[in-house]
Recover the amino acids of this structure.
């Protein structure tokens, strides 16, 4: 299984916002775009979806930016991926004219694997992903970006 680029970007945004925290100030779409080399138009779509889900808060305007609106200690990665990935099956057996469809076990096996994946991801919270050196690295990245912005 492979997650989509959309979900990958979403997880990176959440990790970055959880790592910067409220005390570091708001992060901007431009900042996150530069930090992770993500095209702004892709990032805006992901941010809008996550704001709609209530995970982040987006403040418009000159002093605006993004902040985490959910508690990183309770936001489960499995829940995030379910929302961003959707609940589509890994194969679309109904859309195919397959000679094996009456006796095939593949669909059930893949569904069980997908459930196991989400259950494994549910064991992790956003806070788990920003513990230790990852969180420290994000703070350094955010501060460096803020300093560079002041100099230009």
């Amino acid at each position: 299984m492979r997650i989509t680029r959309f979900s990958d970007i979403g997880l990176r945004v959440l990790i970055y916002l959880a790592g910067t925290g409220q005390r570091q100030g708001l992060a901007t779409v431009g900042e996150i775009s530069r930090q992770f080399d993500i095209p702004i138009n892709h990032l805006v779509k992901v941010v809008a979806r996550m704001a709609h889900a209530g995970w982040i808060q987006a403040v418009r305007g000159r002093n605006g930016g993004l902040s985490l609106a959910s508690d990183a200690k309770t936001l489960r990665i499995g829940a995030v991926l379910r929302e961003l990935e959707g609940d589509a099956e890994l194969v679309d057996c109904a859309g195919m004219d397959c000679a094996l469809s009456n006796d095939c076990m593949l669909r059930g096996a893949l569904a069980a694997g997908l459930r196991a994946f989400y259950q494994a991801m549910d064991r992790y919270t956003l806070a788990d992903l920003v513990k230790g050196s990852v969180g420290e690295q994000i703070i350094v990245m955010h501060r460096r970006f803020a300093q560079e912005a002041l100099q230009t």
